[in-house]
Design brief:
The chain has 236 residues and is α/β, with parallel strands linked by helices. The strands form three sheets. Strands 1, 4, 5, 6, 9, 10 and 11 form a seven-stranded mixed beta sheet that branches. A two-stranded antiparallel ribbon has the order 2-3. Strand 2 and strand 3 form a beta hairpin. Helix 1 packs across helix 4. The chain is globular and about 65 Å long.
Length: 236
């Protein structure tokens, strides 16, 4: 008999990080990086399941120590460099369906997002339930208007990308936002209907730039730790 549950948190954490080895479990301000995502999900109380999708036994062991389930290991197909996040989510949903569990909502959480909080997750869930969008995700405004960017031409010279904005004041330009790469809530039926190709009907959770940091190299890592310590009053 199939059991319908409210929401699952899927933390996507494969073991093959190349730019920062073992990034998902590297020590970040005193804890493995993935611990922050797990603890925020558990603390929120929103989820019937908090699970980690991984191909690494080491990640699985650490995930379990911080309160997540690893009911199965990620397949070889979704552990490769070209597998998308949607591929991983679809695989997880199918594996749960095979054991008779389905979920009304999905929350995909990245394992390298130490600025996630239970409060942000609750805010996103409230938006899902009140407005019934396809998805909800946190965004932040670009710190400098991208309409006023330069590019380098064939001669190696700087040239204004959008000349129509050459004399437009920054404060008069439309505010543009970008995904902060922390988490995504989805309506499961819509996610499956669209096969994970979600690009419209997404509501925003607005996040301060102080709580946002891509972590792709060692400099990014250091900046993220500085921001985290600043936010949390840590001096060590």
């Amino acid at each position: 008999m199939e059991q319908e549950l409210k929401c699952i948190a899927i933390i996507t954490a494969r073991g093959g990080s190349k730019r920062i080895p073992k990034k998902n479990i590297k020590n970040f301000c005193g804890k493995p990086m993935i611990a922050y995502s797990i603890e925020a999900a558990v603390k929120s109380g929103l989820f019937d399941e908090v699970m980690v999708s991984t191909d690494s036994e080491e990640i699985a062991e650490i995930a379990g120590q911080y309160g997540a389930d690893v009911p199965f290991m990620r397949s070889e197909k979704t552990a490769g460099d070209f597998a998308t996040t949607s591929d991983v989510i679809l695989e997880v949903l199918e594996r749960y369906r095979e054991i008779g569990k389905k979920f009304r909502y999905i929350c995909c959480i990245y394992p390298t997002a130490p600025f996630i909080t239970a409060e942000k997750l609750k805010e996103a869930m409230d938006l899902m339930e009140m407005h019934c969008p396809v998805g909800v995700m946190p965004v932040t405004a670009f710190s400098y208007p991208p309409q006023r960017c330069y590019v380098v031409d064939k001669e190696g010279m700087l040239t204004f990308k959008n000349k129509e904005y050459l004399n437009t004041r920054s404060q008069d330009l439309e505010v543009w936002y970008h995904d902060v790469g922390q988490f995504y809530f989805y309506d499961t039926k819509q996610f499956l209907k669209l096969n994970g190709d979600i690009s419209e009907q997404i509501l925003p959770v607005f996040v301060s730039e102080l709580e946002v940091q891509d972590i792709d190299n060692e400099d990014d890592w250091k900046i993220a730790e500085l921001k985290y310590r600043l936010m949390n009053g840590k001096k060590d």
